[in-house]
Amino acid sequence: MKILPKVRPASKGADEGWAVLSTLISGFVIFGGIGWVLDQWWGTRFMTPVGLVVGMGLSIYAVVMQFGGPSASEANAHEQSKTEQTSNAGQTASRSHTVTAAQALSAAKAANRTKAYHRARAAHVRSAVEAIPARPAYSPNEGPPPASTRRETECL
Predict the structure, then answer these.
(1) Distance (Å, whole) CA 155 – CA 147
(2) Backbone φ and ψ of 140, nearest 5°
(3) Which of 16, 103, 113, 144 has a CA between 20 and 30 Å from the CA of residue 97?
(4) Are the CB atoms for 67 and 19 separated by under 8 Å?
(5) In the structure, what pLDDT confidence band is assigned to residue 37 with cuts at 50, 70 and 90?
(6) pLDDT in tens, 81-93
């Protein structure tokens, strides 16, 4: 029976990367195209480079404005942490203890996964070593002939 690999969705970082790349390229192409059209229309040669530079500048500005600041979830987490700091000390201590316990659980799970991986890897290596037959000692018939038996005049 063939086991098919599980398909994982693309990460959020990859989506943001593609969005940044497409924004930069589209600004370059659109404003460069506008400059080229103006050059053709007016009979000049300087609007295409101006359009390319302006398009790249505006697309960089758009990327910084769209992706430069913290995301909404990070901003909410930051605001929530400020609210927790101003709340009473007992509630803050219990919340931080919960976070610490969750982090400890996550670390323990990661350690168990690592141990299981290393155990499986060691078992695989042991089985692979046991499966390799013992190789006979070196025989003189293996490999290329010694240099003294080659015809060195053939190389000239």
Answers:
(1) 13
(2) -70, -15
(3) 113
(4) yes
(5) very high
(6) 665 555 555 554 4
* Domain boundaries along the sequence of the chain: 16-67, 94-124
What is the chain's length? 156
Q: Which of 32, 30, 33 is nearest to 22 (CA)?
A: 30
Cβ contacts of 95 within 8 Å, gap of 6 or more: 84
Cβ neighbours for 97, distance < 8 A, ≥ 6 positions apart: none
CA distance 16 to 70: 13
How is residue 1 annotated by DSSP? -
Q: Which two tokens stand for residue 88?
A: 């009473």
Total Cβ atoms within 10 A of residue 27: 21
Q: Which residue in 10, 28, 19 sits closest to 71, CA to CA?
A: 19
Which residue in 18, 12, 11, 14 sits closest to 63, CA to CA?
A: 18
